[in-house]
Amino acid sequence: xxxxxxxxxxxxxxxxxxxxxxxxxxxxxxxxxxxxxxxxxxxxxxxxxxxxxxxxxxxxxxxxxxxxxxxxxxxxxxxxxxxxxxxxxxxxxxxxxxxxxxxxxxxxxxxxxxxxxxxxxxxxxxxxxxxxxxxxxxxxxxxxxxxxxxxxxxxxxxxxxxxxxxxxxxxxxxxxxxxx
Length: 180
Hints:
GO terms for molecular function: cyclic pyranopterin monophosphate synthase activity. The chain is of the alpha+beta class and 180 residues long. The protein is 25% helix and 26% strand.
């Protein structure tokens, strides 16, 4: 077959045997963007949508999703997650940036949990705001960083156009909101 570990020699799907892998601290960080109308973002920032505080509901949805990743992705191993955080930032007048960080001590990595967390958080933003903005788009769902395990450390290299730093996330308030 190929180097894809989720297939055996005959091409059949399989769950990878991680029994002989070392237990190490695994970390993964993923991100997603939700693009929307300026007025929609202002409603989110002002906590003025009828359904409630969009970012806090999205944060809880992302954390819950990370914990359920093995139920959603067929060949993922269930992991005893030690930490899941979701942060939001507003890098422009029409965008919510979402970042997750997942930590676990296990035999396999937490990349899928981090990616699932930002995806479900972004979907929750969409769900809570669709009554006022059906044209929102969810973009750039991607792994930003991972560490631990045999393959070592990975960090996404951002092209120069993306190297502008978004304002740091801040706890509480009507501005950006930090970790859960």
